[in-house]
């Protein structure tokens, strides 16, 4: 029997923790797919109910669909030139209890629609349990601004986290309303455990960002940063693109 690799390096430990997280997400999907043989209900209906969310298809002739399509087309970064993104469908997700949980943040200003990409295997867990923050016991390597849920305003930055390829080209992405409030803006890596007083989120400022002059503001005040990717005006940053945490 081959001797297991000694986990004596933070990067190795992080890799194994990520692998375990993927396995946990697969377990969630497996539990959702399990059906009771004595049930007369169609399996697909049972699986849908276990997600505890309502899923509706967005009309492709709607203004919302056109805005999302423009957001995708305008914010595909020049450095991500090895693939193209094609929007096949857009779904409206309403998770059970999500609206009441979000209620306390609705009063915050500076709300944006932002992207979050993840592997297909993670989506049963995301839909049924929501986006989750890395647990306290997990190493923090690779997280520039500490533990949290990371979003982007450049679609291809988030698309890279779907880990699709030529053999499996279809992925899923989330477009979320994110209440940012007053942002703690950083142009360098800083592990944030507690936000400064008066700050509600962290922004890693990138060199390239959607042109703010072309943003679209919806009737409820939520901003869609769908301008073409352009120079952000930031002179020095390790980030090519913005990150919101």
TrEMBL record:
One of its GO terms (biological process) is double-strand break repair. Residues 42-245 form the PARP catalytic domain. Its main location: nucleus. InterPro entries: ARTD/PARP (IPR050800), Poly(ADP-ribose)pol_cat_dom (IPR012317), Poly(ADP-ribose)pol_reg_dom (IPR004102), Poly(ADP-ribose)pol_reg_dom_sf (IPR036616). Keywords: ADP-ribosylation, Allosteric enzyme, Chromosome, Cytoplasm, DNA-binding, Glycosyltransferase, Immunity, Innate immunity, Isopeptide bond, NAD, Nucleotidyltransferase, Nucleus, Repeat, Transcription, Transcription regulation, Transferase. GO terms for cellular component: chromosome; cytosol; nucleolus. The keyword Magnesium does not apply. Its EC number is 2.4.2.-. This is Poly [ADP-ribose] polymerase.
